[in-house]
Every structure is written in structure tokens, then in C-alpha cells.
Amino acid sequence: MKLDLDRGIIEECRACARAIADEVVREARAVTTTSIERAVVRLLGVDGVDSSGVPLPNVLVDEFRRANRLAGGAAQAVAELVALGMTPQQVAETAASGELRARWCEDTEGGAEALDAYRTRAALEPYVEAGLARIRASVERRDEFLGLYGHGQEPLLYVIVATGNIYEDVVQAEAAAHAGADIIAVIRSTAQSLLDYVPYGATTEGYGGTFATQENFRIMRRALDEASAATGRYIRLVNYCSGLCMPEIAAMGAFERLDMMLNDSMYGILFRDINLRRTFADQYFSRMINAYADVVINTGEDNYLTTADAVDEAHTVLASQFINEALARRSGLRPDRMGLGHAFEIDPALPNSFLYELAHAQLARDIFPEAPLKYMPPTKHMTGDVFRGYVMNAMFNLVGVTSGQSIQLLGMLTEAIHTPHIQDRYLAVKNAKYVFGAARDLGNEISFAPGGIIQTRAAEVLSKAHAALLRANELGLPGAIAEGMFGGISRRSDQGRGLDGVIERVADYWNPFEDRLRDELGLNPSEGV
Amino acid sequence: MSGNLQVGLTRVMAYGDTLNDGKVQLSFSLPVRYGPEAIEAAKQLAAKMGLEDVDVVCAHDLGGPFTFFIVYGKCRHSVDVTALSVPRIAIDSMGFDELNEFVRAHLDRKIVVVAACTGSDAHTVGIDAIMNMKGFAGEPGLERYSCFEAHNLGAQVPNETLVAEAIRLRADAVLVSQVVTQKNVHIANLTALVDLAEAEGIRDDMIFIVGGPRISHELALELGFDAGFGAGTLPCQVASFIARQVVKNAHRTDAVLPEER
Fold first, then answer.
1. Which chain B positions have a beta carbon within 8 Å of A419's beta carbon?
2. Contact in structure between A397 and A147 (CB atoms under 8 Å)
3. CATH 3.40.50.280 occupies which residues in chain B?
4. Cα(A478)–Cα(A24) distance, rounded to whole angstroms?
5. Quick one: CATH architecture of B96-254?
6. Is the Cβ of B58 closer than 8 Å to some Cβ of chain A?
7. What's the mean pLDDT when you consider all of chain A?
8. Which residues in chain A are contacts of B180 at CB distance < 8 A?
9. Catalytic residue (one of A267, A292, A304, A509)
10. Interface touch A422/B231, C-beta < 8 Å
11. What's the pLDDT at B114?
């Protein structure tokens, strides 16, 4: 604890965040969503597209919805058909061919054939087990790689590729790994977060990024495994567990051994206008899958500072980190898998901006000692002056290594101009390696003047975050969001995209993966019910 | 000595440390494996760009078949600055109070501005700088002006929604921000907006403005907009342009008001 923070206030912040999270989880567990149910059928092994290119999980879940079967959970409806001798994949294909609807039309109950629930549910058990075993196999494989190559030295170097073409992404990712990058994030095509389905197959066209598809995950994973062998370092893969298909991406990422997932509790609500109830329900289940797949989540608090001032609103970042932590805990994520986010976005014209950045970064480190903190580079004050930008990135790297950040998303000198060119990434890695090497142990050598600028600033941010959390607890998180507490953006729970995909659960709702994961992750089964 | 330099504007060359030395720096990568051939390839490419005395001062192996270069050379070309004609917006920019007063004096209502990042673009940093209360670089945004009724629809707004809202709110000005320009996605999107506005019969009733780091006034005019604002634009510049245009249009005898719908 370099900042000499008031432990009592930190504890009160945590207590507040826990209360906020309990309420969110209670509401999340009262509903299911079309995307949760599509994730369930994916976990049961359903994959592929129909003759017009619609993903089978969508076809099947839409069919269940028409038959009014979603409120009980897609698994129950699939189980009834599996008990009659089909595989889940065959059930989906039956839905695609129209046979399922024909069969259900004869039966006004929508397929509730006269089988007792216990027997039908037992019929699905092998498929549930197979889905979980597939995730466990991914975890074991990652552990083998980490055993072989080690975990790497923090801050880990995180770069993005975003060509739109997965094969071109592979070329750039290999070059970045060769230069020294530890983590490769494939940026998604702009607006994929608003698609209510996950595109299928390998893709070569995208804007501002590449579509997240299971095949693209597989292609990049294979390439990075080869890069790991070539460089002797485990190269981690990242994608976005966010947007309208959050739980499905969690399932696909778990299968294809993604190592990190961007997954923030409020990002979609605030910045993509995705409905709040949809987001919280999707996220609750997604994070359980992430936890089981041993994935490090990356939260998105840095984004607040792109719309709000980095000094005035620094406390909202901290308040949100407490909330993300509490919600992640409710989904069974370990503290060392919570890549809480923050950013270097203070106006460089402000005197002592470097000291404030250091105070904010050290604050996150002191309060979340186990978290693999994700530190985001300057973007808002990057101007197109690449030379000045390169210096700002060096300052950012110096704060990162000094304050002991875990995941350093490298700034690009061409930020605000274009998606990175191949040399931009190379120069960013060189910058980080130089600064991290030159100041490797600086953090251990320095202490901050008691009552000086840095300690005072940190205490001030903590105190304001405390006040914000008290207020958020009073209002409830939806109320605080409606008030515009985060990022200065206001959203209401009865508005936003994807609300039509939120469905109240019936009393005997069944999601076998939620049940099993709660069990495996040691979560209290009645919590939030 | 520099005071005595004869700087002719008819044959302007790049300036390094001596007038007319033509010195430029550039950096680029080639998909060629690092080695003497890669360096020679960089030299020849630079020569084809019109550089003489090419000096590859730095060549780095990017891994795989890629090499990065930093190159200096003398650019033999020159430009006649006296013959240039660059379209620019003639903004007589007013300050915050002056502008509010100007509108109050000339118009008996508020000016309605509807703004959005359209299409797939999720980057609100530009539109927020112009619209939000807080504004940009110490200059308040349009929301703070008493003379404006400012509506910021946010990111990823379909053109259809923007036009529908502009009609519903009886907008005087429509403000579009485009930050993502990869593969010229903004061109198609901006063209589609103008087409839609024309189809709805509102194109000439409202001021259409586009802004973004890669946007120039010239490009905006080409695409059928009234004005384009690039990087570093202050809210008061956009505000002044809108206010003057609206006041000017209000005094046109042939002004056609949007139909009530």
C-alpha cells in the first residue's frame, strides 16, 4: 500500500458494491434471454447454419420462442426431443427444416410430450457433460502451454489487430508476436455488438475489425499456438464477450481457448444502448462460463473517460471497478481473473498530469492487489501528431510499469488516424519494451511523499468513489445509470436494444449449465433466487 | 541570415535546414524479408516517389516477410502556392455571448440542431466535443447555448432514424460525425444520408453538416453537404456557421418551411 489509503473506506466501498451486485443478480436470475438460450444450445453442441445462412442456434431458439417454450428454458424443450432419440444437433436441424413446427402444430402444448421431467432431463445429461468436458479440455491445454512457456512478465504487452480479414489478421498477429507482443486482441467489425446472431465461418470482410466467429477464433488460435512455439512465449488471444450475443461468445470462446474476454458490466448499456436487463442477465451467465473456462475478463472502465473528463470523473472508474468486482464474484470469477480496466486519458496540458495518472494507476493497484489490471493508453488527446503521440505512449508505459499494471494495452502512435499499420504495432512494442526494461524495478524503489500530490489525489478519488457507491446503492444500479453516473450517459431499464429478447423465467425454468456451473464454481444455489 | 531568405511562393520545395533542399522524411514497411534486397527495394521505391539522394537511415525486421524503413531524401518537386485555390468555410466565428445575442436579435426562436454518429460508427468523441455541455478545449458545446435546442442522438444511428428525427424535431441543422473511414465506409454512408434527405424532400430545408478527423470542407461539398469540419474544430465555429446560415435562410423570401407531419 504505497498510497496510505483509508482501509475503512475501502471496506465500505466493497460492502456497497456487494449490496448493489446482489440486487442486480436477483433481477438477472428472474429472467432469461434469447442469447442465453442460444448459448445453452451451443453448449449442447448445436452449430452450423441453415440453407439461408441463419445460425442454427437462432433458428432453434426462435422456434422455441414461437412455441412459447423459452420461459422454461431451451434445454427443457431440447431434452424432450433428445429423450425421443435425437441429438441436440438433429433437433436444430429439424427446426431448420420446418419439421419441428409441423410436429408441434399437432400438439397445442408446444411439444410437452408426456414424459416426466426427470427422465427427459436425464436424457440431456451426456450432452451437458460433453459441453463442459470440451471447456475443461481447453483449460487443460492452456495450462500445458503455460507450464511449458511460463506466464510471461507483467505488464504483458497487449496489441490489437483489425484488418477485417482473418487471414490478414493472422499475418499481423504473427508479426506482433515476433516483435514481442504477449496478447493479441482481434477487434470486431464495427457494430457486431448490435447483431442478434453470431456470424458463421471464416470471414474476410469487416469494417474497423474482423467478425468474431467460432471459425475465426479457431484460425487465430491455431496461428498463435504456432507463434507460441516459435517464440517460446504463450501468446494469449482476446475477443469481445459483449453486445447482444455475449453469452454465445462466452461459450464459443470457452471452446476455442480464448484466454481473455472483454466483458464489462455496463459498457453495452452505456455505449451501445443495449437494454440494461438484457445486459445484466446475459452477463451473469457469461461470466460463469468465463470463470469455468478460466478466462481473464477485461472490464471497460477506461471508456468512461473517453466521454467524460479523466480528472473530474476518475472516481466513477473506481466505483465501477468495485461494482465489476462484486458482480464477477457473484458469477464465480476469481480475483486474479478480474482484469479491471482503467486508462491514461488526462489532458496532457494539465500541469502534473503525469502525477495524477500515476496516482490513479497506483490507486487501482493498491485497492485490487490480485487483479490482473488492464491499463488502456491515451486516445482522447491523441491528435495525429505521431511524434508527440509516441512520447505520450512512453509516459503511459512508464506509469504502467511503475504502478505494477498487469495488462498494458499498447498505445499506437497513429491513434486517431487509422487502424494500426504493421510498423505502428512494432514501434509500440519497442517503446514498451524499452520503458519496461529501463524502469523495471522503479516501483519498488520509490515511495510517495505523505500528504503529497499523489497521495492526496488518490485519497480524493477514493472518497468520491465512496460517495458515488453510497448513492448508487441508494438508487440501485439501474437508477444510478439512469442518473448518468457513469460516462455521463443516461439509460433507462425499459429502453434499449435487445429488450424484446428478455423473458421472465417460469418456476421450473431449467438451464442445466447454470446449475452445473454454480455447483462447479462453488456458488450458493439459492443466492439471488 | 534567415531574415534575408528569398522565399518565393511560386516554387515551394520541402524545407529541411536549407532553403530548397527538398528534404523529406518518410517511413513505411515492405512485405519483403529483412536484408540487403529489402533495403534496396525501399531505396528504389523512394526514388520512384520523386526523391533523390535517398538515405535509408533505419531498417527493422518486423518478423516474417516484413521490413520497416525510415527514409530521408530530397524531393525534387515544387508547388506554386500562389496558384492554389482551396475551398474553405468563411466562418466569422462569434463568441458564446455574442452568438446567443445574435440569434436573439435575428430570430424569435431557438435553432434546432440534431446530431449523430451514423451508420456503424461508434466513435462519439467528435460529436460529443461539439454538442456536449462541456464542449472541447475550454469552448462550451452547443447544448450550453441558450440559442440552440441541441439533440445528440449518439452512436450507430441509422440514417433513416436521423432523418426521421430531424423531421420530427423540425431541425434547422443536421450534424453528422464520421470517425471510422476505413475502406471509405464513410463516403457510402454520407452519400446515402443525402440521398435519403432528398427523397424525403428535406435536403434544402435543413443545413447538412459533416465532421470528423478525415473530413474536409471540399469533400463535404462534393458529397452534397453544406459544410465539412475537420480535426480541431471548435464548437463555436460550428455554432456560428449554423446560426448565420439559419438567420440568412430565415430572411430568404422563398424560404420553404418543412411540412408539419
1. 182
2. no
3. 96-254
4. 9
5. 3-Layer(aba) Sandwich (3.40)
6. no
7. 94
8. 190, 207-208
9. A267
10. no
11. 94
How much is the average pLDDT of B31-48? 97
Q: How far is B67 from chain A (nearest CA, A)?
A: 9
**DSSP state string for chain B:** -GGG----SSSB---SSSTT--EEEEEEEESS-SSHHHHHHHHHHHHHTTEEEEEEEEEEEEETTEEEEEEEEEE---B-GGG------------HHHHHHHHHHH-SSPEEEEEEEBTT----HHHHHHHSTT-BTTB--GGG-TTEEEEE--SSB-HHHHHHHHHHTT-SEEEEE----GGGHHHHHHHHHHHHHHHTT-TTTSEEEEE-TT--HHHHHHTT-SEEE-TT--HHHHHHHHHHHHHHHHT-TT--PPPP-
Specify the CATH architecture of the domain A299-315+325-488.
Alpha-Beta Barrel (3.20)
| pLDDT of B144 over the 90 cut | no
Residue A375 has pLDDT above 90, yes or no: yes
Give the closest residue to A52 by CA, choosing from A97, A88, A105, A104: A97
Per-residue pLDDT tens for A490-526?
899 999 999 999 999 999 999 999 999 999 999 976 6
Residue type, A341: G
User: For the segment B161-219, what is each residue's pLDDT rounded down to a tens digit?
Assistant: 999 999 999 999 999 998 877 677 788 889 999 999 999 999 999 999 999 888 888 88
A425: closest CA among A150, A151, A162, A154?
A162
Q: Where does CATH 3.30.30.60 sit in chain B?
A: 23-81
Q: What is the pLDDT of residues A275-308, one digit of tens each?
A: 999 999 999 999 999 999 999 999 998 888 877 7
* Beta carbons of A323 and A21 less than 8 angstroms apart: yes
User: What DSSP character marks residue A70?
Assistant: G
**Any catalytic annotation for residue A267?**
yes
Asked if B128 is an interface residue toward chain A (Cβ–Cβ < 8 A), one would say yes
ipTM exceeding the 0.90 mark = no
Ranges in chain A annotated CATH 3.20.20.440: 299-315+325-488
Instruction: From B161, B164, B155, select the one nearest B131 (Cα to Cα).
Output: B155
Distance from CA of B236 to the nearest CA of A (A): 19
CB contact under 8 A, A423 and B68: yes
Cβ contacts from A onto B, under 8 A: 74
pTM: 0.85
Selection from B157, B174, B192 nearest residue A191 by Cα? B157
Phi, psi of B244 (to 5 degrees): -65, -40
Q: Is B188 on the interface with A (CB under 8 A)?
A: no
Candidates B48, B74, B134, B248; catalytic one: B134
Query: What confidence category does residue B64 fall into, taking pLDDT thresholds of 50, 70 and 90?
Result: confident
Nearest residue, CB atoms, A306 vs list B27, B68, B125: B125
Give the C-alpha separation, B109 to B104, whole Å: 8
Instruction: Test A271 with B128 for CB contact under 8 angstroms.
Output: no
Record: fold of B23-81: Defensin A-like (3.30.30)
Grid cell at residue A470: 453510497
Distance from CA of B119 to the nearest CA of A (A): 9
